[in-house]
Write a structure and sequence with these properties.
InterPro entries: HTH_67. With about 290 residues, the chain is mainly alpha-helical. Helix content is about 70%, strand content about 0%.
Length: about 290
């Protein structure tokens, strides 16, 4: 669907930047740092860490911006979590967790390398073309100061680029008329989404709601009648259209960086996330269709 090679290159770059941001969500360090300031529940920890840049917001704001989390799960923790720890304290704890996680996954030599400094410079340059309007999670993160340490600056820039694309992706999902659970189920059916066991454990939906969403997708002709989640030709086309629309909405930062810059950032990002993956950054069964 994405015929423009520049959009394909931009998506490829995003695909190696995004998991770099996400490493801390699967690190024991995040839970440890947040527990130390009074946020002990793992679900509350994720919701607080990601929403803290927006301030002490309520459940409605978090549900709207996160999109695929069940509102009742969000409301169980937000805004109560802000009584345990302020957004500022959460952000400081998150930064400590990111720092220690990256030091463990990449090692001191990589963090202090010229390549890390170059990656930070390139990623930050790309963020210069990001825009705040209609992008609440990006806009909130963009108001934060850029860290001084190169590895933290690179993580910060990767976060900005991830949330910028993510805000646009939600718009694409709405345009495709996929509700939060349908969006999750159809992504699982591509074989590239988070495995059902992880979705059900973290997003708040139960198995009956997950299965009901699959049935709605079958009624729309997007999934086959098979028990295993398999996209029909129409389903494949719709998911491709969603990604194409997301690519188009996320064009600006990579166009600003330029083809040479995108290629170099992709090269460096691939190296760093490859090292992180090799050191166990994510569970082995995180991606796939297995229930």
């Amino acid at each position: 669907m994405t015929s423009d090679p520049r959009l394909r290159a931009a998506r490829h770059c995003h695909n190696v930047l995004n998991p770099f941001h996400s490493t801390h969500y699967f690190s024991p360090d995040l839970g440890k740092e947040l527990a130390a300031i009074g946020v002990a529940d793992s679900g509350a920890a994720y919701l607080a860490a990601r929403s803290a840049p927006m301030g002490a917001v309520g459940a409605g704001t978090v549900s709207a911006t996160f999109y695929n989390f069940k509102h009742e799960l969000v409301a169980r923790h937000v805004p109560a979590v802000w009584e345990a720890a302020s957004p500022e304290a959460v952000l400081a704890a998150r930064a400590r967790a990111v720092d220690s996680t990256l030091r463990r996954l990449l090692g001191e030599e990589a963090l202090a390398s010229q390549e890390m400094a170059e990656a930070a410079e390139l990623a930050l340059r790309a963020t210069e073309a990001c825009t705040r309007h209609a992008r609440p999670l990006y806009a909130a993160h963009a108001d934060l100061d850029v860290p001084e340490a190169p590895h933290m600056a690179y993580w910060h820039a990767a976060t900005l680029l991830r949330e910028h694309r993510g805000d646009g992706h939600i718009a694409a999902l709405l345009g495709a008329e996929l509700d939060p659970v349908e969006a999750l189920v159809s992504h699982v059916a591509t074989g590239k989404g988070m495995a059902p066991k992880w979705l059900l454990a973290t997003r708040g939906w139960d198995r009956s709601e997950y299965d009901a969403a699959a049935e709605r997708l079958r009624a729309r002709g997007l999934l086959t009648a098979e028990e295993e989640l398999t996209l029909t030709e129409q389903g494949v086309t719709l998911r491709a259209e969603i990604e194409h629309r997301t690519d188009a909405l996320d064009r600006a930062p990579y166009a600003h960086l330029g083809e040479t810059g995108v290629a170099r950032l992709t090269e460096l990002a691939t190296k760093f996330i490859g090292a992180a993956l090799g050191n166990g950054a994510f569970p082995a069964d995180l991606i796939g269709k297995a229930a």
